[in-house]
Design a protein that fits this description.
The complex is a heterodimer of chains A (about 290) and B (about 350). Chain A has about 290 residues and is mostly helical. Chain A has one domain (about 1-280): Orthogonal Bundle (ABC transporter involved in vitamin B12 uptake, BtuC). Chain A contains twelve helices and no strands. Chain A has helices spanning about 1-30, 40-55, 60-85, 90-105, 130-145, 150-160, 160-165, 170-195, 210-220, 225-245, 250-270, 275-280. The radius of gyration of chain A is 19 Å and the shape is globular. With about 350 residues, chain B is an all-alpha fold. Chain B has a domain at about 65-290. The chains are: A mainly alpha (about 290), B mainly alpha (about 350). The interface between A and B is large, with 49 and 46 residues.
Chain lengths: ~290, ~350
């Protein structure tokens, strides 16, 4: 029983970065902008956070630094796709490729270092960011579906033309969504390198940014469902590590591939019903917007 | 006030000029980075733009690295033209190298050219099958090809790790995760004695010519273009949306798989976890910088090959991390996308009076 609780607790821990990133991407995509650069942003935030933690020994500052760095690069993406109308898919990919190169380049002198961080073991002992992520989920749910500003954000994602006709500054709202979303994705990246595994390894995000992107679809762009999905994925990761630790008679590689296979499986399951996706997906997602056209 | 206005027709001149301009911006940013790191910018640039084309041996090396980039870049151009976002070429490359290894491990010293044909075909088949999974899930279940193809990269990496750590591990390999070194009959033939360049180079150039004919001269290629530019128009014309998904995905998978086969049986000569070096991802940039056109992709694959070699040389000679290549690749694509804005749009200077009138 205690072991099950432990597994549950660790699933929540390992699902938290996915949750934070998915929440950020939900904000992003609700405004009509898709961000395929999430993986790159998380990597940039991971190395920034780790370097800051090493220099200042301040956990909170490191997390904020990671979020800030990611927000800056997200703003760059925003300028390119919102003002210059660059292709959102290509620009996001550029950010992911740049992020992986840039973080590896900057991180080369940090590969031997590690942080001394208070460990959080036991089913009831979590890093405070775990609780913050839950509160953010509730807050974002309220914001999107109960607050007027959230309604405006969704309107911008559904029909930028209509939102503009009503007098809302579509481009600025989108930029705000991209920067806020980027900061949350960055917080997730910094959590990985500062809290989960307090060290820096090249490419350590290992697809979490992409899995978070899949989670937004899985959650049909709803924060509460993203929480469920993120913890589920955290569970798959922990189960897989747990089985590896017990020396189960399965190839380690198959177990390591499990989270990725699970992502594909879940995507297939959700996308199979086109009506469900169509009813929930922000209508203008990924499409350029020309004000005054 | 400056306003961006869509052009009625994309500017053809700027479409060609834009990659050149983007390269210029990347180099300028590169110089800035070198200076910030306190390195001699001139000798750094030399590693990237002079050393790789210095002499015959350097050029052979350049063409060896450009070969997989060209093959994969061609396939991705087909995909991106028809708006299929296959970003998992790295996984298709890995499967190609795995399938080719399966053939190579069955070679005997007497095997003739038939074995080489089987090996390369197996590579193409492996890549096409892996891309086929993405196509099936997109076609049947509407699953995003971006995410599925990318997740399959991680799965392919694990499959590769399993094989070289398990069933295919060289028993005399000091426990390293690697297969035996392939017999010379299972190695891609070289173009001439003493040169490291192999038949992969002409094979890639032939593929480029074939892709050029397919895109510009065939009706099937035209249908893909229409499907990419306007799905509604393609539907109206009765062009199959399904073949606009399957054909480019299978072709790009096959080309990436072929690249994987040429790599494992060419310069590497054995399957290890170090066979995939990120060519599948770099080829995304190759495709865009080459304007999704086989001729352009041929040039951009050479450029990207220079980036790879320049990165390696900067590491060995100047003590800079090799990952600087990745930084430049990302910067190049960023600059290109920025410059491309002006291919499709023009700047208009609006006086503040008329700007206010426009705003109303």
């Amino acid at each position: 029983m205690n072991e099950l609780l432990l597994l549950l607790g660790s699933s929540i821990d390992s699902g938290t970065p996915l949750l934070l990133a998915a929440l950020g991407l939900i904000i992003n995509e609700r405004s009509g902008v898709i961000n395929l650069g999430a993986e790159g942003l998380m990597l940039i935030a991971a190395i920034t956070g780790f370097a800051t933690a090493l220099a200042t020994k301040n956990d909170a500052l490191a997390l904020l630094a990671g979020a800030g760095a990611a927000a800056v690069f997200a703003a760059l993406l925003g300028l390119l796709v919102i003002w210059l109308n660059a292709n959102q898919y290509a620009t996001g990919l550029a950010l992911s490729l740049f992020g992986s190169g840039f973080s590896a380049f900057v991180g080369i002198r940090y590969t031997q270092e590690s942080l001394a961080v208070a460990s959080h073991h036991g089913p009831y002992s979590h890093h405070y960011l775990v609780y913050v992520a839950v509160l953010l989920t509730l807050g974002l749910s309220w914001f999107l579906f109960r607050a007027k500003a959230g309604l405006v954000l969704r309107a911008v994602g559904e029909s930028p033309e209509a939102a503009q006709a009503l007098g809302y500054p579509v481009r600025l709202i989108r930029l705000a969504a991209v920067v806020t979303g980027g900061a949350l994705v960055g917080l997730a990246g910094a959590y990985v390198s500062v809290v989960s595994t307090p060290l820096w390894v090249e490419g350590m995000i290992a697809g979490k940014g992409w899995i978070a992107l899949a989670l937004t679809t899985f959650a049909t762009w709803r924060p509460a469902r993203a929480l469920l999905g993120a913890y589920l994925f955290g569970g798959v990761t922990m189960l897989q590590l747990n089985l590896q630790g017990r020396g189960v008679n399965l190839p380690v590689e198959l177990l390591t591939a499990l989270p990725y296979l699970a992502t594909i499986f879940v995507l297939v399951l959700i996308s199979k019903n086109p009506r469900w996706i169509a009813a929930n997906m922000p209508t203008s997602l990924g499409k350029p917007f020309y004000p005054g056209a | 006030m400056i306003k961006l206005e869509p052009r009625a027709q994309p500017s053809r001149w700027l479409a060609i000029l834009s990659p050149v301009l983007a390269l210029g911006i990347t180099v300028a940013l590169g110089v800035l980075l070198f200076l910030l790191l306190g390195k001699d910018a001139l000798s750094c640039l030399q590693m990237f733009f002079v050393e790789p084309v210095k002499n015959g041996r350097a050029l052979a090396e350049l063409s060896i690295k450009a070969t997989p980039l060209l093959l994969i870049g061609l396939g991705l151009s087909l995909c991106f033209r028809s708006n299929v976002w296959n970003i998992g070429a790295e996984g298709q490359f890995i499967l190609g190298s795995i399938f080719a290894t399966w053939v190579a491990l069955r070679a005997s010293p007497e095997s003739g050219p038939g074995l080489m044909i089987a090996l390369l075909s197996a590579g193409a088949l492996g890549g096409a099958l892996w891309a086929g999974i993405t196509a099936v899930l997109r076609d049947r279940c509407n699953a995003s090809e971006i995410l599925v193809s990318l997740m399959l990269v991680y799965v392919a990496e694990q499959l590769l790790a399993y094989l070289v750590n398990g069933p295919w591990k060289d028993p005399n390999g000091y426990n390293f995760p690697q297969t035996i070194t392939f017999l010379s009959s299972a190695r891609v033939p070289r173009l001439s004695e003493g040169s490291r360049a192999n038949i992969g180079v002409p094979l890639a150039l032939l593929s480029a010519a074939a892709c050029w004919l397919f895109i510009h001269k065939s009706f099937a290629g035209y249908r893909l273009d229409v499907a990419g530019l306007s799905p509604a128009a393609a539907r109206y014309a009765g062009f199959s949306a399904r073949s606009a998904l399957w054909l480019p995905l299978l072709l790009s998978g096959a080309l990436a798989g072929l690249a994987g086969a040429l790599e494992v049986a060419g310069p590497d000569g054995q399957l290890t976890t170090h066979v995939p070096l990120g060519y599948g991802f770099a080829a995304i940039i190759v495709a865009f910088v080459g304007r999704l056109d086989p001729l352009g992709v041929t040039f951009s694959s050479l450029l990207m090959s220079m980036f790879f070699i320049g990165g390696e040389l900067s590491q060995s000679r100047l003590g800079l991390p090799k990952s600087i290549t990745g930084v430049f690749q990302g910067l190049l694509l960023f600059s290109l996308l920025t410059c491309d804005t002006f291919v499709k749009n023009k700047l208009r200077f609006v006086s503040s009076g008329s700007a206010r009138a426009l705003a109303k």
